[in-house]
Amino acid sequence: MVVKVKTYKLPPTSLIPNSPYPLLHYPGLLRSEVSSPDFSTTDLFDLFARNGWQSQWIARYGPDIQSHYHSTTHECMAVISGQGATIRFGVADSKDWDHGKFPLGDRADGEEGGLELQAAMGDVFIIPAGVSHKTFKPRPGTQSLTFHQPEDIKEGKAKHVTPEKEKARREFFGNVVVEGEFMMMGAYPYGGVWDFAVGGEYKGHEEDVWHVPRPEKDPVLGLSEEGLIGLWAGNQEIAKQEVY
Prior knowledge:
7-stranded antiparallel beta sheet; 6 helices; 10 strands
């Protein structure tokens, strides 16, 4: 497999901690797998699990979602369906953001700048703790977000890992219908429970987010140096970053 990866360093803003670790984008890394007529979400569940990452949701995206970051864990998002979408990283929406305020899926108002990437089938994104992100303008367009998540994970019990629980979670994801809309599957290192921070929560305490431990494996590439194991290796000693 030829691995293509794009890396992006996103400095802190006045509202978003972002991270010394680079955002990783693997264009089309899983395209052949998710495009196969035999593809099942359980295949992805198993791949992530082998590499120490727990699948926690599948989402069908609507026109817009609030820009947010996770302060407690790193995240992997893999595109499993649809023609594409725009994902903006690194900045916050305005405080008065609301669902339906931007029905055409505009980038919304808020902090200037950030990084906008086009997501396509089979793309994989590894988002360091603290890096904000929002997915909008999915293709084909849909009117609302549909979020599929096992009930126990929804209740905050992701850390409760037993063979029986993981079997039930695997079965749950296997029953999610994947059609033509833009959909992604999200995973986190086992033990990671994500929060939903929208900006300003860690102002002055960004280093608390920057020191979330590095995962032991890349969710797709495992121990390969082509993945986060190699790409994040030089960032283990985190120095104070300047907030602009």
